Automatic annotation (TrEMBL):
InterPro entries: NDR1-like. Keywords: Membrane, Transmembrane, Transmembrane helix. This is Late embryogenesis abundant protein LEA-2 subgroup domain-containing protein. The chain crosses the membrane at residues 12-35. Signal peptide: none annotated. The keyword DNA damage does not apply. It is found in: Membrane. GO terms for cellular component: plasma membrane; plasmodesma. One of its GO terms (biological process) is defense response to other organism. It comes from the Eukaryota. Its main location: membrane.
Amino acid sequence: MCEDDCEGKICCLCFCTVILLILATSVGFLIVAIVTPPEKVAILDANLTRFELTANQTTLFYNLSFTMKIHKYKEADYHDMDVDCYYNTKKFDSRKLGDLKLKIRRTRLLNLSSNGNSTMDLESNGVDAFKRSNETGFFDLEIQLKGKRISESDDGTRYTYKLSYQCNLRLQLENSQNSTQGNFKPVKCH
Ligand SMILES: *[C@@H]1O[C@H](CO)[C@@H](O)[C@H](O)[C@H]1NC(C)=O
Ligand SMILES: *[C@@H]1O[C@H](CO)[C@@H](O)[C@H](O)[C@H]1NC(C)=O
Ligand SMILES: *[C@@H]1O[C@H](CO)[C@@H](O)[C@H](O)[C@H]1NC(C)=O
Ligand SMILES: *[C@@H]1O[C@H](CO)[C@@H](O)[C@H](O)[C@H]1NC(C)=O
Ligand SMILES: *[C@@H]1O[C@H](CO)[C@@H](O)[C@H](O)[C@H]1NC(C)=O
Ligand SMILES: *[C@@H]1O[C@H](CO)[C@@H](O)[C@H](O)[C@H]1NC(C)=O
Ligand SMILES: *[C@@H]1O[C@H](CO)[C@@H](O)[C@H](O)[C@H]1NC(C)=O
């Protein structure tokens, strides 16, 4: 970049700029390496075909199916994995995935379905939210992926992290007359 015959000042400026650029890039890489989580989680597709509250408002009947995508970037093992479904901060279903075997830099698709009834206390604000959603046909659900990630450093030390991802979904209740298939846009989990 510097020409041989350039003046001292310009050369110094040029040299400093190069040093600064190198520094900034390495700091950048370091930050990316620390901040980037070792996996990426998303919901690729979901169907809600039943979501009903009994007249006495104590029992929720539901039928939800979804495809969860997990992409692993770094070497790690996953243990005690659970997928929990929430409506208005109340858990209505839970799936135990146990230990997950994932290959590095590979994507795993999990097709999960939860279908049943749950006794729950939505409280008055939850019942109000339900009634409003029941009129529009759109329900806000939350899916959580939880578990433990165990990774090993170069010297063999094992590190255990608590892992927790939250996926916020707005789903349209489908009935047999109409189907909303193909309308779902993938949702990133954080
Ligand atoms: C509410 O209604 C459901 C069915 O309609 C019934 O199974 C349940 O026992 C009732 N709960 C209460 C607390 O009355
Ligand atoms: C739940 O919904 C799926 C469609 O997503 C359907 O195939 C299945 O029969 C439903 N299950 C029940 C018990 O209604
Ligand atoms: C949702 O329903 C559509 C149409 O029935 C089906 O093609 C799709 O595979 C379903 N997705 C999931 C995650 O169940
Ligand atoms: C899960 O569903 C996707 C499509 O939604 C399909 O491509 C994949 O093969 C299914 N995986 C399993 C294990 O059934
Ligand atoms: C509610 O779910 C339980 C299993 O969790 C089942 O035994 C029961 O029959 C279901 N109730 C109704 C009314 O479908
Ligand atoms: C939800 O809407 C259906 C009609 O679409 C109605 O029969 C039911 O009573 C409503 N449930 C609540 C809790 O408002
Ligand atoms: C499907 O039916 C529900 C209830 O009958 C309605 O609220 C919704 O707008 C319909 N969706 C489409 C795409 O027609």
